[in-house]
């Protein structure tokens, strides 16, 4: 099961601070455990695609307001990050809300860096468009739904 285009858009809006993270946590908690895990897997993929490194973990922990001693934080501070993300995803569901908070913070940090470096002079990534503009969002959702229908 993949997450919906709407959910993917929401994750990007939370990461970019367009939507308030506490709203994101409320949204996440209302999902079934299976869907929560799918959201976390999607975030893990976004984090890797955006170019996360272990150097991004401590700032993300701080941004998320988590203790460095939490299991998920200890795991992510080890290398390689791709392996550690998988280990974090294997933690019990009671950890999902903390994982969500940390993953959103981590994604926020690495995607911001990507926008300021690789995409500095413009890019075609839909998630780097103005996601606070309702007309842009409507256009993006229409495009994503169209692409999903053709795959």
Question: What attributes characterize this protein structure?
Answer:
mainly alpha, 151 residues
Task: Give a written overview of the molecule.
The structure is a single chain. With 151 residues, the chain is mainly alpha-helical. The protein has one domain (5-149). The chain is built from 8 helices and no strands. The chain has helices at 5-15, 21-29, 33-49, 57-64, 71-76, 81-89, 96-116, 134-149. The longest helix has 21 residues, at 96-116. The two termini are 14 Å apart.
Topology:
Layout lengths: L4 H11 L5 H9 L3 H17 L7 H8 L6 H6 L4 H9 L6 H21 L17 H16 L2
Helix pairs in contact: 1-7, 2-7, 3-6, 3-7, 4-7
A few lines on this structure:
The chain has 151 residues and is mostly helical. The protein has eight helices and no strands. The mean pLDDT is 92.
Largest sheet: none
Provide the number of structural domains: 1
Beta-strand content bin: under 5%
The ordered string of helix (H) and strand (E) elements is HHHHHHHH
Return the average pLDDT rounded to an integer.
92
How many β strands by DSSP? 0
Output the structural class: mainly alpha
Task: Identify the overall geometry.
Answer: globular
